[in-house]
Design goal:
globular, about 75% helix, mainly alpha, about 0% strand, 17 helices
Length: about 400
């Protein structure tokens, strides 16, 4: 009876702006904790007394689980019924968040969050395969980043202030509410049947002429995400080390998150009008500059400007990177691999940062981020250049 009722609900047009919004929430649900990772790391330290390393490793385990889930779903995505599978994953996420509310041991919580991430990674991989079936996936990825920036901004602005009053459970309650909202939105998405597999370039997906630039695109996605998330995870601690007030830090991160929507708005508005080589390379170089000036965060206007600038460029560049990967294979499999690379980066960044930050040497984290971003420039150059020249056809 429930299934019949849900099937009769009106569906939006598959390539409409409303569909892009619903798909964005669908994709964001599996990584809802990434949107509030500074609040999560700081909340575990303040609410449960975790050390920098323990809190950072909990966050990393969450995203490493997501990477493993994305890896598994890459082999299954064309064999499952996506709508019923998405329902199953969303209920699994809600269950793991409820379980996490009962855990206070850092090592048990690492295991619980790894399982949560595993389910979420499969959900994100599934959603990416659907996004790849839309027209101009860059725009849908841009909408995803817009949703993440808006909801993440609310999270990092409010949750760090709520943890001292209500405990760390408020972090997991926020994620549960996000997943419940996504469950409701899912009912209005149309079916996205997989397209017939097409030969793409000189003999198909496995051809080395296409595989090499795809691997470079995936590497660039990994490096870029690792650099940004590694620094972002310890942003509250970085601000405190420069004697900034917690309320000011949270407000800045929240407002910066909202202003960061300018990045995906630009992607949605212009798509590939100016190609992707110049936007990707230019955006990463601007991120390097913004990351460097975090060294002078004791000056409040520099702290604000650096957060806003890197937020905009982060969302702008990653939308192009994910869209670039999706264009290598219209069936959605390359898009799923891009999700795997992205989550590996999101997990590796906080883990590496947690190992080098020590008791509070945040300048090391800034150097780490700059090195990874520089490597991402070289990795992204060739595949984006080939796509702009038409050596690989656009989807």
């Amino acid at each position: 009876m429930i299934t019949t009722f849900l099937s009769r609900l009106p569906k939006v047009a598959p390539n409409s702006m409303i569909a892009r919004v619903l798909l964005a929430f669908f994709a964001a649900a599996g990584l809802s904790y990434v949107l509030i990772i500074p609040a999560l790391v700081d909340g575990l330290k303040q609410g449960l007394g975790f050390s920098n390393r323990q809190a950072g490793l909990v966050a990393s385990c969450n995203v490493y689980g997501a990477a493993c889930g994305a890896f598994v779903i890459a082999f299954l995505v064309r064999r499952v019924q996506w709508r019923s599978t998405a329902h199953l994953f969303l209920f699994g996420l809600i269950g793991m968040d409820l379980l996490s509310m009962l855990v206070s041991n850092p090592y048990i919580l690492m295991g619980a969050r790894f399982l949560h991430g595993f389910i979420g990674g499969m959900l994100v991989g599934l959603s990416f395969s659907i996004i790849a079936r839309t027209i101009a996936p860059d725009r849908t990825f841009g909408m995803l980043l817009l949703v993440q920036a808006f909801t993440g901004g609310i999270g990092v602005m409010t949750l760090p202030l709520l943890v001292p009053k209500f405990g760390t459970s408020v972090l997991f309650i926020a994620m549960i509410l996000f997943n419940v909202a996504t469950l409701i939105m899912l009912q209005f998405l149309p079916d996205y049947p997989p397209p017939e597999r097409k030969e793409r370039l000189h003999g198909g997906f496995a051809d080395t002429l296409m595989l090499k630039p795809l691997l470079l695109a995936l590497l660039a996605t990994f490096l870029f995400q690792a650099a940004n998330e590694g620094l972002f995870a310890f942003m509250i601690g970085l601000g405190r080390s420069h004697n900034l007030d917690l309320a000011f830090i949270s407000e800045t991160l929240g407002v910066a998150g909202w202003l960061a929507v300018l990045g995906p708005v630009l992607v949605i508005g212009v798509s590939t009008k100016f190609g992707i080589f110049k936007p990707i390379i230019g955006g990463i170089l601007l991120t390097v500059i913004g990351t460097y000036v975090f060294n002078y965060s004791e000056v409040k206007w520099i702290w604000i400007a650096a957060n806003v600038a890197t937020g905009i460029t982060w969302n702008f560049v990653i939308s192009h990177l994910l869209g670039m990967c999706a264009r290598f294979d219209q069936t959605g499999q390359a898009a799923v691999w891009s999700g795997f690379a992205s989550k590996m980066g999101l997990a590796s960044g906080p883990m590496l940062a947690s190992l080098i930050v020590g008791t509070g040497n945040y300048s090391r984290v800034i150097v780490m981020a700059i090195v990874l971003l520089t490597c991402a420039v070289f990795a992204a150059a060739r595949p984006s250049w080939l796509l702009d020249r038409g050596a690989v056809r656009f989807a």
